[in-house]
Every structure is written in C-alpha cells, then in structure tokens.
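note to self: dont lose this again. the chain is below, predicted strucutre after it. 182 aa total, dont forget to put it in the shared folder this time
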Amino acid sequence: MSTVVAVKTTPAPFEPIDAERLKALGDKGRSDPSAVRTVKVRTVAEGKRFRHLNYVRDLAAHIVDEPPGLLGDDTAPNPTEALLAALGSCVAVGLQANAVARGWTIRAIAVELEGDINITSVWGTGDLSPKPVGLTAIRLKAHLDVDGATDAEIEEVIAHAAAWSPVLGTVKNPVPVEVVRA
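---
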C-alpha cells in the first residue's frame, strides 16, 4: 500500500545521481535479465545482551540491538526495525532512480513505515500457542517532492517503485529459506 504525501521540507540541495550511469545500469540489466548476485552478511553476537554486529562487504559493523523492554541496551534498531529500515531504503532508492530516469528534479524523498507484530512468543520462550510469527501488517507512506511531475505521475512512480523493490518483493512473496547448523 502506498500513499503520496507532499513533503514541504527544504533540506540541503538534493545531490543527484548520475543519470547516464543509471541508464547504463538499466541497459546492463536489460542485456542479461537472468543475472543473479549473491548478497552476503555475517551476524556475530557481541556478548552484550542481545546486541549483534552485522558485517556487510568491507563496511564497519552494522549494529542491531533490542530495546530495554525486550532485554536489550537500546543502542541500535532491533531486527524488525532493521527490516523496516531496509524496506524503506529500498523503496526510496527506487523512487529516486525512477524520478531521475523521468528527468524530474528531486527536492525530497522520505518513506515512513510501521508494522504490527505479536511478540508474546518471546523468540520461542514465551506463549507458544498458534499465532502468526513476525510482522502481520506493514504500512508504508512514500513522500516524494519533485518538480516536473503531476500527482498522477507521482502515484505511478510510487506504485512502480513498490512493484520493483527487491526488499518489498522479498517481504511480500514466499522465499525459500534454508537454516542449517554451521
């Protein structure tokens, strides 16, 4: 579900992405639509309650923690919040790429997300009665403030970005997941 909401903030000038490099990337995708890339992350428990270090490429560790109500130290987003952040970032990238591809001048992009989750099972140590595990609903509001587009065109770009978001597609569609002992 997406909603267009006008953003009337005036941040620093929006640094554009290179439209020619975006076109080249799109052309590359069209030339081999079957290309698959494996994305890797390594998660290591830090030993400080529920705080975890997540290693991606050669970047500094991305920290995930729990809030005090879930026995964490509240030093970083929890896993569900990190999932929503990944989803919002992926949709925002799609909005930006599609706005640039259409020649629009971007003033601001923001994506607001919220999700509903029943946490009474406490990771399998609490109430284990039958219930959905994980998020049961996600609401996403896309804010896109651009020059050169009608409201209908903005609605279309939001729907298009949502339809082609890899993270949104992963959340919406069943994905085989294999869990094994290392």
